[in-house]
Amino acid sequence: MPQQNTSHRVIDMKLPLPWLITGAVTVGAFMISLGWNSSAQSSKLDQLILANIKLEKRLDDRDIRLDAMRDAIYAVQRITDTHSLRITALESARK
Questions:
Q1: What is the C-alpha to C-alpha distance for residues 78 and 71, in angstroms, rounded to an integer?
Q2: 67-81 exposure pattern, b = at least 16 Cβ within 10 A, e = fewer
Q3: Which end of the chain is more exposed for a tag (fewer CB within 10 A), N or C?
Q4: How far apart are CA 53 and CA 78, in angstroms?
Q5: Which run of H or of E encompasses 22?
Q6: What is the DSSP secondary-structure string of 34-85?
Q7: Tens-binned pLDDT, residue by residue, of the chain (95 aa)
Q8: How far is CA 93 from the centre of its chain?
Q9: Cα–Cα distance, 88 to 67 (Å, whole number)
Q10: How many Å apart are CA 82 and CA 56, to the nearest integer?
Q11: What does DSSP assign to residue 3?
Q12: Distance from CA of residue 92 to its chain's centroid?
C-alpha cells in the first residue's frame, strides 16, 4: 500500500504584543464611544418626548378654546337671528 505524502501545515499566528494591545484599546475605545453615543441619543429622545407632550397639551388647550369660541359664535348667531325675526315682526306689525 503506497503511502500518500500529505503534510498538513499548521499556521501558528503569533501576533506581537503591541498589536494585541493596540487592537484591544481600539475595540475598547469603540465600545466606550458606542455607549456614550447611545446615551446621548437616549437623552435627545427623552427631550423629544417631553417636547411632544408639551405640544400635545398646547394643542388640547387650543382645541378647547376653539370649541368654546365656536359655541359662543353660534350663541351670538342665534341671538342675532332672534333679534332679526323680532325686528321683522315689529316692522310688519307697524305697517
A1: 11
A2: eeeeeeeeeeeeeee
A3: N
A4: 38
A5: helix 17-94
A6: HHHHHHHHHHHHHHHHHHHHHHHHHHHHHHHHHHHHHHHHHHHHHHHHHHHH
A7: 555 666 666 666 777 888 888 999 999 999 999 998 988 888 899 999 999 999 999 999 999 999 999 999 999 999 999 999 999 999 998 87
A8: 66
A9: 31
A10: 39
A11: P
A12: 64
Residue located via cell numbers 323680532: 86
C-alpha cell at 92: 310688519
Q: Which triple of cell numbers denotes residue 65?
A: 378654546
Residue with cell 325686528: 87
Type of residue found at 67: D
Identity of residue 16: P
Q: Cell numbers at residue 17, please?
A: 504584543
